[in-house]
Amino acid sequence: MRLLITWFINAAALFALPYLMHSVSVDSIGTALIAALVLGLVNTLIRPLLLLLTLPVTFLTLGLFIFVINGLMFWGVAQIIGGFHVAGFGSAILAAVVYSIISWALSSLILDKK
């Protein structure tokens, strides 16, 4: 049940993102649900491999390269999912940060602290 709630929270954060950033657009709540699912799968399966492969660069940049990886994941999902658009790679980096903040805030308000 917690997994479904987290999925809906992430979809709500993704659906709210275009209201804060004009460079991101989500056509419908269904698109937001699909994009949140794909984004979660990509972050679970591909992101750890990319973090491992780019560990030297991440170390040299004192961890700032993780923002680039997050933006790459966000931009890649936007390229795959129809109805979910990001204007460019720079916008994807900023959108990934804002999306994470919204998702964290909603999760801390809704989910229990057990």
The chain-level mean pLDDT equals: 94
Multimerization status: single chain
Q: Structural class of the helices, strands and pairings?
A: mainly alpha
Q: How many beta strands in the DSSP annotation?
A: 2
Percentage of helical residues? over 70%
β-sheet strand percentage: 5-15%
Low-confidence stretches: none
Q: How would a textbook summarize the main sheet? A: 2 strands, antiparallel
In short:
This protein is mostly helical and 114 residues long.
Provide structural commentary.
With 114 residues, this protein is mainly alpha-helical. The protein has one domain (2-110). The protein contains 6 helices and 2 strands. The protein has helices spanning 2-20, 29-45, 47-53, 55-60, 65-80, 89-110, and strands at 24-26, 84-86. The longest helix has 22 residues, at 89-110.
Topology:
Elements: H1 2-20, E1 24-26, H2 29-45, H3 47-53, H4 55-60, H5 65-80, E2 84-86, H6 89-110
Antiparallel strand pairs: 1-2
Helix pairs in contact: 1-2, 1-6, 2-5, 5-6
